[in-house]
Amino acid sequence: MNSVFRAVLSPCTGVCTMADDGYCHGCHRTTAEIAGWIRMDDDERLRLMETVLPEREARRG
After folding, report:
1. What is the pLDDT of residues 6-15, one digit of tens each?
2. Which residue, 8, 14, 18, 46, has fewest beta-carbon neighbours within 10 Å?
3. Rounded distance between C-alpha atoms, residue 38 and residue 61, angstroms
């Protein structure tokens, strides 16, 4: 039986400063999302990267 390994890389861009709206200027995550990244499974990470973060980025303009 073959197992598929998926690795979801962090969205960190190296611009690690928090804006007044509570989101990182670089990756648009909250401090809780940044701290919890290591405990998230791939599905949670993908949802964050493919849905949540792009929506935040678009709203922030």
Report:
1. 677 899 999 9
2. 14
3. 28
Domain encompassing residue 34: 19-61
Is the distance from CB of 16 to CB of 24 less than 8 angstroms?
yes
Other CB atoms within a 10 A radius of the CB of residue 15 amount to 9
61 within a domain of the structure (yes/no): yes
In a domain, 36, yes or no: yes
Could you give the number of structural domains in the chain?
1
Does a structural domain hold residue 3? no
pTM: 0.81
10 Å CB burial of residue 35 (0-12, 13-18, 19+) is: exposed
For residue 7 the two structure tokens come to 């690795």
Tokens of 37: 């990244």
